[in-house]
Fold this protein.
Amino acid sequence: MFPAILISKDGSGYHAELRSTDASILPEGEVLVRVEWSTVNYKDALAITGKAPVVRRFPMIPGIDLAGTVLESRDPAWQVGDAVILNGWRVGETHCGGLAELARVRGDWLIARPAGFTARQTMAIGTAGYTAMLCVLALEKHGLSPEQGEVLVTGANGGVGSVAVALLAKLGYQVVASTGRLAEAYHLKALGAAEVIDRAELSSPSKPLGKERWAGVIDSVGSHTLANACATTRYGGAVAACGLAGGMDFPSTVAPFILRGITLCGIDSVMAAKTLRHEAWARLARDLDIAKLESFTREIGLDEVIPLAAELLAGKVRGRVVVRVAG
């Protein structure tokens, strides 16, 4: 028996609870992992609260991230005692995830814990930080460099945004952080933001084109914010879109694309190829300031996950949260 956050659905409704369960709930997979640390992402919060149809089968253990140690393996790539991490691959949606002391997963979903990181630090980064790095890589591959001008980060107080601000600042970019919590501007300035703006500047319906400002954008909000970001990106610039905290719609026009030649880069962290994952984690090891990471990370236990999910969706959680899973 082991503790797990368990999501179920029956005639009386949708339920999420912390309970003791056994390994019979775990799906097929070549590797059994003792989970030591996990985290709570926006998608996890949607799954736990039932605010969106994230969970595709029941019962389900949520948690799209995990870090731990191999207990059993039928995959020759992994040996008992190996330190591993997992991000995405639809765990917590169609396959039981990381908010439990045990996880049985496919061996090709795992990567070795990157050198230089503790298990806790990899979950402080988690899918949010790994996604932020994928966004940075996409902008760099488009040709973005610091001398080209300001880079906008939306949803900057969230998990993706906080890491994106810290990464871009360390790489020498002039970062403008957009947030709905201007009272916490000091936090974003400490991470390296040169300027903090109110998200209201970007959340109204956009014009087809606005004044050119951004050399690049990392957007985790979507909807009108993404449309406004595209409309104000400079000629030839690029926008990396990775989230939908403000909505799944994209009320824009083709004007920024055909009149200014901007590029909209879609960022998917869930099914990204392992080569790209290794590249992202190698860059995180090189470019992320661990002290800054710790400054916007807090730690909770499994028993605090369910109430935290509602707070996260309400926009009350700043930065990153790590979950201490193993006792």
User: Anything to note?
Assistant: The domain at 127-266 is CATH 3.40.50.720 (Rossmann fold). The chain is about 30% helix and 25% strand. The mean pLDDT is 96. The first strand starts at residue 2 and ends at 10.
